[in-house]
Amino acid sequence: MDLTLAERFALISFNSKESEHREVAKQNVLKILAVAVYLEENYNGTADKWNFNEKDIKVAIKKANKKALERTYAERLQNYQLISRVSSLLGCDLYFDKNIKLKTYVSNPKEFDCQLDLLKAEFLEEGPISDESIIMVWLLLESLCFFQVFSLYEQDKITKRITTLRNESTLAKALYPIELRSLWGTVSADFLRMKSHAAATETGKGLNFIFPFFERKQSIFIDTEGYFPNAEMRLKNVLDRISAQGHIYEVLRSGDVPIVKIDNVKYELLPEAIGGYVPIHGVRLRLYNL
């Protein structure tokens, strides 16, 4: 589907964000969505030129009605059948209060992958990069979604292309030096970058759920109905629980430690037993982005 810049950004960035409550991650996304709308409105199609400056971008952020912006783009993508609301994956956690009702956005998996593949095709391969892709990657960086939707390998490759573009592209020279993150956003970005690189080591992988600093969803324990000595049976039990709550999944790797994409996010499912008088068996979900 031929989406606008702001629609493309909303489709990617809304995925896995809470739909009915305020959260830091979503507020940051909405701030950057306001920038995407501003850039669209100031694009000169006749001259094929993006007109912007840092001062006006920050004014656009300040003036934007974030709640109305979310409603507008969520409804638009829903009308396109490109986004839906499902119960939060937290609802599958053993210790989550079932009386708390949380809903999250889930983007259409086919279109979600398509939009990311378009960016990867340009940034990970040799050749020219379109202006819209240059802008989209910058939007994802400033919203912190960059560290969630690209693997560690892809992050490194794209970052190198960004360095080159700063010297070669007139648009990138003007846009990439503009930083819109607050101090908290900068700290968050550094932490997410550190976690991504730490995940490349066996010991570092534990950071993803030992320190679920920004996302409680990074440390979900799903109990199984009983002890399953067979890994296949254990996986089936967990997937049945997930699908019963409306989640979309794809098994990327089976075995003792499966990798499953749930609502467009990749997780490792680590077998675990919580000690007690009667041990509780299940799996711990760990974000996977290698």
From TrEMBL:
Protein name: Uncharacterized protein
